[in-house]
Amino acid sequence: MCYLTTTKHSELYKSVFVVLLLLLITAPVSLLFGFGGAIAARSQIWLVNGIARLYIAIVRGVPDIAFFMFFVIALDQVFEWIRHRTLCPNWSDAIWQGNDFVVCPEAKMPLSAAPQWVHDSYSFAVAVLTFSIVFGAFAANVLYGAMRAVPNAQIETAEAYGMTRRQTFWRIVVPQMWLYALHGLSNLWMILIKSTPLLFLLGIEDIVYWARELGGSKTSKFTSYPHGDWRVWYFLALLVFYLALTRVSEFILDHFMERLTFGQAIAVRDAQRAHKR
User: Could you give the 3-state DSSP secondary structure of residue 96?
Assistant: First the structure.
């Protein structure tokens, strides 16, 4: 018990909370990105439609690791460039000096003198935004397909009753598309859970990082209670944690599907039940 309650182990336990918080925030934000992308992909304005399809195609076509490593650096530099142009208008030196990106000290994100919690909060916010953009593209593809799966007969009936295109979309398409999208979104949620170890690429010390550091026999983060190579036990604990998290997610999603399909779209509900069998 003394070993498991050391200061370093408390960081491991905090990282579990960080992972759960990331999931709880990223899921609705990425769904918002996805819903906006799906609506834009249905737009009759060619520029909006093209940007949405390009966004979906780029994110889906680039490996997550490569996108995470590139996007975080690019996003950070965009923020600093905006602050640099605002806070240091009289700066005469070039921002790009060879391969170096140099801005005035006041434009750094966050400031070097800022407390540690500010640095941690900034890294976490960038992580949430990056995860949301990546998984928002996948959610947009799922929702776009779900919108198209709504029977045309119902849309034509709504138009025959005099509904406008906007009314038909919000009153007919949107309420029913979730029936077709939930399975795809549930799979996307599972993939999001499995992708949380990528937090380490964004500068956040996640549970995989601490399991490796605390389980290793010679690491910079572990200074007390010398032991051999115990990484296999730490990673086994992570395996149990992720399996438990996915099992709870499956239970909640199955319950949500039952509630969502109750009394609605009988054919879809029967197909979902047949798929389970």
Answer: strand
* Close Cβ partners of 132 (under 8 Å, ≥ 6 residues apart): 26, 29, 30, 32, 33
CA distance 148 to 143: 9
Q: Which sign does the torsion angle of CA 177, 183, 186, 191 carry?
A: negative
Length of the chain measured in residues:
277
Angle between helices 46-61 and 116-149 (to 10 degrees): 110
Separation of alpha carbons 39 and 26, rounded Å: 20
Closest Cα partner for 242 from 176, 173, 196? 196
Whether the upstream peptide bond of residue 110 has omega within 30° of 0, thus cis, is yes
Specify the residue for token string 């949301």: 132
0.85 exceeded by pTM? no
165/159 Cα distance (integer angstroms): 8
pLDDT digit string (tens) for 95-142? 887 778 888 888 888 777 778 878 888 888 888 888 999 999 999 999
Residue 60: which residues within 8 A CB-CB, separation 6 or more? Answer: 137, 138, 141
Cβ within 8 Å of residue 179, ≥6 positions away? 146, 260, 261, 264, 265, 268, 269
- Cβ–Cβ < 8 Å for 104, 88: yes
Residue among 109, 119, 131, 139 at smallest CA distance from 22: 131
pLDDT in tens, 52-96: 999 988 888 888 778 877 877 888 888 888 888 888 888 888 888
- Kindly give the residue spans of alpha helices, DSSP state H, lying in 110-206: 116-149, 152-160, 165-168, 174-195
The rounded distance, in Å, linking the Cα atoms of 248 and 254 is 10
Tokens of 98: 């060879």
